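About this split. The held-out portion is used to measure sequence recovery: a designer receives only the structure tokens and must propose an amino acid at every position. Recovery is the fraction of positions where the proposal matches the reference. Here is one held-out target exactly as it appears in the evaluation file.
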């Protein structure tokens, strides 16, 4: 009898904890970007952990991600993969709290976006959705300067799901373009980037991969080398070093997951490369 009472009390305490967690405004907004399915989940317990499973019974563990200090996390899996829910495991902070968890129901992705392409100075991208009020903001940056907004396109400006923006002649020097697609109702924002052709000499420098984890390779194909600079998306210089002719390995493993602008300048101050890279998790 005593054992039953103790068990009942423990279950009641766990229920109270979970009920308190239910007061959080958990929300999972999904979207598909270039064949990858993303879920931006908010309202979780800060510093907890998310696990993404394929079936309600558990199934295959597809991915996991830490929850940041504001209760947000982003999980990604291949588009079309069967999914059911995210399991939010709360890390133990007090005796008896280890293993507590709650489920977050995942709805269908709100929209699908496809990367920007360019054709003779015209940016083209796709936004596939049944939701209303979607906007696309066009930004550009030149030589590591902060991004400046060029235009806002509404759904009425698109031909179905196809959007386009013609680069004006006075913008021809701007080599990096960024499109931000926003669903104002959910607060969901998806960013697309594209490096446009510049007036600088081509094929003098190659930077790879465009999406990296730790190391970026900078290959100087012609010349005596020069300087590499890495800027944040808001134009802040976050890294600078010299590069020599041939292959140069740049370790950016300590950088936060985000997009960056890479600028390589020759010893004669001529810009040899200006492009965008993305640090993955």
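Reference sequence for scoring:
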């Amino acid at each position: 009898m005593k054992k039953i009472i103790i068990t009942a009390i423990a279950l009641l305490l766990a229920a109270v904890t979970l009920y308190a967690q239910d007061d959080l405004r958990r929300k999972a907004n999904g979207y598909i970007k270039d064949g990858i399915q993303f879920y931006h989940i908010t309202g979780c317990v800060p510093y907890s952990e998310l696990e993404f499973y394929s079936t309600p019974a558990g199934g295959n563990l597809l991915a996991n991600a830490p929850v940041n200090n504001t209760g947000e996390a982003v999980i990604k899996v291949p588009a079309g993969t069967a999914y059911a829910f995210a399991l939010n495991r709360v890390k133990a902070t007090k005796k008896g709290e280890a293993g507590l968890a709650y489920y977050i129901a995942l709805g269908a992705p709100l929209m699908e976006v496809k990367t920007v392409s360019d054709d003779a100075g015209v940016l083209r991208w796709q936004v596939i959705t049944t939701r209303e009020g979607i906007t696309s903001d066009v930004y550009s940056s030149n030589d590591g300067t902060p991004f400046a907004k060029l235009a806002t396109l509404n759904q009425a400006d698109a031909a179905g799901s196809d959007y386009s923006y013609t680069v004006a002649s006075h913008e021809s020097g701007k080599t990096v373009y960024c499109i931000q697609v926003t669903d104002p109702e959910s607060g969901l924002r998806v960013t697309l980037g594209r490096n446009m052709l510049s007036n600088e000499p081509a094929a003098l420098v190659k930077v790879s991969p465009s999406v990296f984890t730790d190391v970026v390779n900078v290959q100087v194909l012609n010349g005596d080398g020069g300087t590499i600079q890495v800027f944040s998306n808001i134009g802040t210089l976050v890294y600078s070093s010299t590069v020599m002719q041939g292959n140069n390995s740049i370790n950016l493993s300590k950088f936060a997951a985000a997009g960056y602008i890479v600028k390589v300048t020759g010893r004669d101050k001529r810009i040899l490369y200006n492009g965008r890279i993305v640090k993955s998790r």
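Annotator remark: The two ends are 51 Å apart (CA to CA).
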